[in-house]
Design a protein that fits this description.
By secondary structure, the chain is an all-alpha fold. It has one domain. Helix content is 83%, strand content 0%. The chain has four helices and no strands. This is Plasminogen receptor, C-terminal lysine transmembrane protein. InterPro entries: Plg-R(KT). Keywords: Membrane, Transmembrane, Transmembrane helix.
Amino acid sequence: MGFFMSKSMDANLRRQQEFMLHNSRLQLERQILMQNQMRERQAAMQLAWSREFLKYFGTFFAVAAFGLTAGAMKRKRPILVAPLLPLGFILIYQVDAAYGTLMHRVRGEAESIMASERTRLEVPHGIPTFDSIEKDRRARSSLGAILDK
């Protein structure tokens, strides 16, 4: 009779372990999906910010270009249009960031770095472990208890 109970308990334990593994997988999938959605939202916010900034900078550039060109023609000093060169680079960059392929090129470069320059991405002192975090937490809590006295 003990053998049959043991066999039944083993089967229940196995089913419970499979259930826990299944739940762990579901939780991990949900976390990955949530993090991806947050990343997508942040990227959308960044892109929207670039487009909004472009409107203001484009207006500034147009007014500055008109004013500097008019001033250069009126005073007959072509050097007055010199600020348009760096401002033009900034404008082109913003147009590329807002509507061009800048994000695709940056993503491609990031993938290349991750593939061929992995050592540049290492975190100082390595990846935090549970033990290192717990050690730091204990040190801080004991320090807090000492300071409270």
